[in-house]
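Support case: adenosine monophosphate complex. Customer-provided input:
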Amino acid sequence: MEPPLQQQPPPPSPRAATILGKYQLIRLLGRGSFAKVYQARSLVDGATVAVKIIDKSKTVNAGMEPRIIREIDAMRRLHHHPNILKIHEVMATKTKIHLIVEYAAGGELFARISRRGRLSESTARRYFQQLVSALRFCHRNGVAHRDLKPQNLLLDGDGNLKVSDFGLSALPEQLKNGLLHTACGTPAYTAPEILRRSGGYDGSKADAWSCGLILFVFVAGYFPFDDTNIPAMCKKISRRDYQFPEWISKPVRFVIHKLLDPNPETRMSLESLFGNAWFKKSLNPETAEGNTFGWDSAFHGKCGCYEGMSGSSGVSAFDIISMSSGLDLTRLFETTLDGGCRREKRFSSSARVEAVEEKVKEVGGVLGFKVEVGKSNGAIALVKGKVTLVFELFQIVPDELLLVALKVVEGALEFEEHHWGYWKDGLEDVVLSWHNQES
Ligand code: AMP
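Agent response - structure generated as follows:
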């Protein structure tokens, strides 16, 4: 067992920045494309937390707001498992979103591997058990991660694994693939069926493949499909073309081989790992048990089919419409926006995605708006002078029901309220029902 990891932060200087009067920032932990992550201290109870600060203007420009909504939704629903990073609070200002999450004092697991080299088989097994337990919990609750990669595996102060960033867990394929290639520079941690982009796939099976790859890196200390040429690497992945170093034991080879099966139909499932002798050894009862149905009851059922694992819908479009007020995840961001009423309209639609997008562009064009963001980003920005409207589209039941939001994100003062009337008339053909009619 490795010694516990404790990085005691220096006390913050008296001039350290405070956000929203509640958290004092201590130091920058890392940065992603849209967010900076800080270690911070709560001024209320002194607890150490991590604060992810997301610049709304950047996310809106890049059509990322739906991604953030999904990340928060997935994290909130899954926060009862000990190996999933907890989300404590979400706060929004006009320009920024602050996610207050559990602080992982041990940092990135893979940074440790690159510093100290490969893990012993027993240490690798312990982290692997925690990873698989966390994912099984997600899958049982209808969410697949689908973006497992080194940066997403953090360690807490006691050396326990924490899976973070469900940001891509529910993204449309186009955006997901785009992000994987640009953000990571390599599709290496992605299951072959996702790389093939051949229609739908089972997210839990894709996660099982990524787990096989992660286990290989744990015990080998290097990546199995390394190739500077991406098409060549993809070929290796789809042929299961890798070499085990001689120190890897037979039972570990067996598990990796079964998980890295390019065919999702015959690939070993994470559930079945709990019956595997190597995996079960020294399995902590809490990890074995996981937490089967832990999420907030308020979310349970309502979002179970929300772009989760393919083929797991089980709720009809009409069920969704009847409870659609409960699906208003966007309210998370509207604490400073007049309750979001005057500046946002939402409607459900049973039309095709393309038809809704075309209609929005058409009505926007008539009202003098220019389209600034393409549909592959999952959101469309419409700009006219100082006013920016963002149009977001969520597939609640794939091919059956969409939830669409039209928001004024900039230039609220200049926005002409009577324009809502034109939008409503113009979109009539694709609207099933409006969800904030009263405003
Ligand atoms: P992200 O934008 O979530 O990928 O975060 C960027 C980097 O910040 C990560 O790769 C980690 O090194 C670090 N980080 C993110 N979240 C946390 C956290 N909760 N605790 C400690 N470090 C974190």
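The pocket of adenosine monophosphate is lined by residues 29-32, 35, 37, 50, 85, 101-104, 107-108, 151, 154, 164-165 (CB under 6 Å).

Case will auto-close in a few days if no follow-up is received.
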